[in-house]
Amino acid sequence: MKKILALCLPAMLWLAANLAISAAEPPAYHAETNIVCGTVAGKNLTLNAFLPEGEVAPAPAIVEIHGGWWFGGGKASQLEHVGGWQFFKRRGLAVFSIEYRLGRDGGFPENIRDCRNAIRFIRKNAARFHIDPDRIDVTGGSAGGHLSLMVAMVPDDFPDGGPLPGLENVSAKVSGSFSYIPPTDFVRFWNQGPDDVVNHDNGKISFRGPDDKIPYDSRPRLRVLFHGITPETETGRAFYEAMSPVGHVRKDLPPLLVCDGEKDPIVPGLHGQALCEKLRVAGADASYWMTPSGGHGFPGGAGFDQVLEKFLVRSLKLDAPRAEGGK
Question: Which of 22, 183, 262, 294 is buried most, with the most CB atoms less than 10 Å from its CB?
Fold first, then answer.
């Protein structure tokens, strides 16, 4: 019996140690809200910061970009409103939720510029927020998923208008992107949408507004977001591709985790899967998840938690998952 106990003791000690790690309380957080991170076209753009307390080393960070068809939505008012917050809090990540210009005031590439400048502002103020400027991921769903991919994938010299005054020479690069239910190909998205042309008795035509009752009704919104440009000309198509993640596929990208909903009623046809297939052919670090029977929402399903955990470990260079021993 003593011999059996002696043989079991190391395993018992290992299990106890790991249970203690797993049960450890996540850090307390405090919020700093409505921080002006830039002024553009006379409008202040702000962010909310949710910062872990009591951490000695600068924390890794993740920046959330909200969804809403690029027309609506807003930055999260509290940590629990950020998609995936439980994962981020458990890992002690600093979490930022940012604003960008919406609708006619935004569009492409203006909203991409706003997001990249928010990254620059956060990195420039890394000491203020007590974060590691070399470990910043980005995340978002739907429109925010598209923008999080663009932030991660576009080159440094992407023609979006560039840094705001005071942010010159500050990098907008990120360590990785976790995006879910994103449109990844605007030419495809346009072609998936029904016609929005209205023919009048006098021979003139106009274009109707978006109708939430019409499935995949992308065209009315894209006309506004692309400032009247459509992909029906060679120049227009090239512009749509440049504003799409699919237009920036190459090998030298940070790690990407892209998630679809199998039965998404807003972005049809597994846009993320098509993108990831191209990324893998190019040799990029791209992970893919499809939520079985999932709609237009945060990913889930058996095994997703482990996929996201492993992605964060890799992209932000965190310790291995606690379930694996916390080493």
Answer: 183
